[in-house]
Design goal:
By secondary structure, this protein is an all-alpha fold. The chain contains three helices and no strands. It is a multi-pass membrane protein.
Length: 77
Amino acid sequence: MLYPAGWGSQKVQDYCGHDASPYKVGECSLGWAFYTAIGGTVLTFICAVLSAQAEIATSSDRVQEEIEEGKSLICLL
């Protein structure tokens, strides 16, 4: 939400035209880095959800006993 806060500055208006303001890019466009950052944020949340599911799947007493016996575990959703 803070990303476009500086779009109304004089320097941005010089580059992108007088129509540039917060949430209006004027004649400029968003680059690939912006979309890559959004994608990275979404993937981070997905990884957090998957790791929470893996923790739940391996936190039972029966699983702990199998780990202590030396068995290998494979997490499946």
